[in-house]
Amino acid sequence: MARSSHSLYLPPELIQMVFESLPLWDLARASEVSQGWRQLAIALLHRNRVVRKMSHVKHLSAQVEADPSGYLASCIHSLSFNFRRTLEEPPELNDAIVVLREFRKVILKLKNVKYLKWHEEMYFEANVMTYIFQEFAIQCPQIEVLTVYCLAYHPKELKFVEQLGKEFQFSNLKHLNISYEVWKEGANVGRAVPFCTSGNIIDTTPTISHLTLNNEAIVLNYDCSEMNDPPSPLFIDFFQSHPDITDLELGGFHEFVTEDEVRDPTLYLFPSLKRFVGPASICMDVLLSPTAAHLETLIIKDDLNEISEYLQPIRELARVIQPLPKLKELYFSTPADDIQGTLDIDSLKMLFAATPALESLGLSCFSFKLNDLLGALARTPKLTKLAARISHEDYDLGLNCPQVQALTKKILCQLAKACGKLWERRFLLINEDLRHAEWVDTPLNMTVHHIHSIGDDLNIEYDSIHKASIAGIREYPETW
Questions:
Q1: Which of 203, 219, 235 is the last residue of a domain?
Q2: Within this chain, do residues 138 and 159 fall inside the same structural domain, yes or no?
Q3: How would you classify residue 186: left for phi > 0, otherwise alpha for psi between -120 and 50, otherwise beta?
Q4: Residue that is last in its domain, among 219, 251, 280
Q5: What does the CA dihedral 210, 75, 102, 176 come to, rounded to 10 degrees?
Q6: Where does 284-401 show beta strands of DSSP type E?
Q7: Whether the model pTM is above 0.70
């Protein structure tokens, strides 16, 4: 192992820990220091592979083929194909199919892949994709997470997702997310993935516990033309026959409905659910059912409505919420890019009163006055992580860097008094005058500051407000 000029010995375990925290660029440079460092770095350099072009596929195939020992292939644990749509028609389709067929031959060496994502918008061809996924299902028994998004150019290609449910048996699959769309006449036409697809995959893969069904994957209220039965009862029956799901994300519809008024649509659903993502109206159904007693993570997410339509069901939820004794993570998420949304403090206090075990909180899609937020946070004694958007009357464009730093430290001190265990804080600092304004109405030279603090470490960055997308601190828990 590497030694310095003073013969200082660095244990491999210590170097490994340091390497795991390095960005890929620095890790690549560190691998050039010595043969020992290279051996430690190469596994991390290839652990998460992202493929965005056909040239990347060719390069990956060549690398795997050129390594007879199979060591490089064994290092790959996460494999993500992101063929994003950049042109109106898929470029060089025939050449792409040849490359993909060659790649299929090396899949048998990728036996340690656990995470597989295939986002396909350019080169989709059902027969080729079918063979590739058959190989992954057979040759890669450790795959636990499967994410598939396909943009096809003819409705007949739906046979691929049907085959995905009927023929491909991923023996260790735990997390499933399938989306499918058809491209037609210059526009994307959403199309439902049949229930039988997800149902068949789960039936042939009993280890599945995480399932994402969104408005792209299963369109309940928008495209039910191929369903013989009413959609909502079919949806409910689907979950009643699969009670082992612990992680569920729903979107694209806003209520459980049955034709039988006597039957409570959520009473016997989700007996094992621990993490739920969905709009507030569906969250209300879940939280008023026996599921609430064992729920650990809740993300109230709405990708379809404006901020005002997002807020109202949350207020209604706060009024009827029952105690959630095991809930440790609570996040709010909406893509509405305005700054005006603010949840009333009474609703926030009611939500916090029902979640005494809360440890991680994401409020970045709302704007709060600091004092209001502090009063509500007094009800979260176990909180360790907070993401928020704070408006402060003393913060304005005229402050210099030392003044912003002094104000930030003052805010952090007040947060620490309200929540004694708070360790990580990430928030957007804005002026009080902007709390009820929209991003598009603000001056282009207006600046805001992003604050990120872990323990005693503090990082402050500023940006022009028309560029300062709140998405950077809104998407929790992904950015923790």
A1: 219
A2: yes
A3: left
A4: 219
A5: 0
A6: 297-301, 329-333, 360-362, 368-369, 385-392
A7: no
Token output for 439: 């991003």
**Residue 143 is assigned to a structural domain of this protein:** yes
Helix axis angle for 345-353 and 307-320, nearest 10°, is 50
Compute the distance between CA of residue 103 and CA of residue 105 in angstroms, rounded to an integer. Answer: 5
Residue 263, judged by CB atoms within 10 A of its CB (0-12, 13-18, 19+), counts as: exposed
How far CA 230 is from CA of 95, 162, 222, 236, 387, in Å, comes to 44, 21, 13, 10, 41
The pair of three-digit structure tokens given for residue 366, joined into one six-digit string: 């709302």
Identify residue 260 by its one-letter amino acid code: D
On whether residue 234 sits in a domain, the answer given is no
Choose among 385, 384, 301, 389: nearest CA to 341. 389
39 and 54: one domain? no
Nearest to 314, CA basis, from 289, 274, 279: 279
Cα(357)–Cα(381) distance, rounded to whole angstroms? Answer: 8
Q: What range defines the domain where residue 21 resides?
A: 14-45
The three-class DSSP label of residue 279 is coil
> Is residue 247 within 8 Å of 209, Cβ to Cβ?
yes
Instruction: Name the packing angle between helices 345-353 and 370-377 (round to 10°).
Output: 20
Type of residue numbered 403: Q
Encoded amino acid at 365, one letter: C
Burial degree of 329 (CB within 10 A; 0-12, 13-18, 19+): buried
Residue 184 CB coordination number (10 Å):
13
Three-class SS state of 282: helix
Instruction: Divide the 480 residues of the chain into consecutive groups of 10 and give the mean pLDDT of each group.
Output: 54 71 68 70 76 88 89 88 63 75 92 88 72 89 84 61 67 75 53 54 65 45 32 59 76 51 54 84 83 91 76 90 93 69 88 95 88 93 92 78 90 93 89 55 58 86 55 48
Burial of 463 (0-12, 13-18, 19+ CB in 10 A): middle
Give the β-pairing of 175-184 and 187-190.
antiparallel
- Answer whether 301's CB lies under 8 Å from 279's CB: yes
CB 368 within 8 A of CB 390: yes
In a domain, 244, yes or no: no
At 12 the pLDDT is: 72
pLDDT at residue number 262: 40
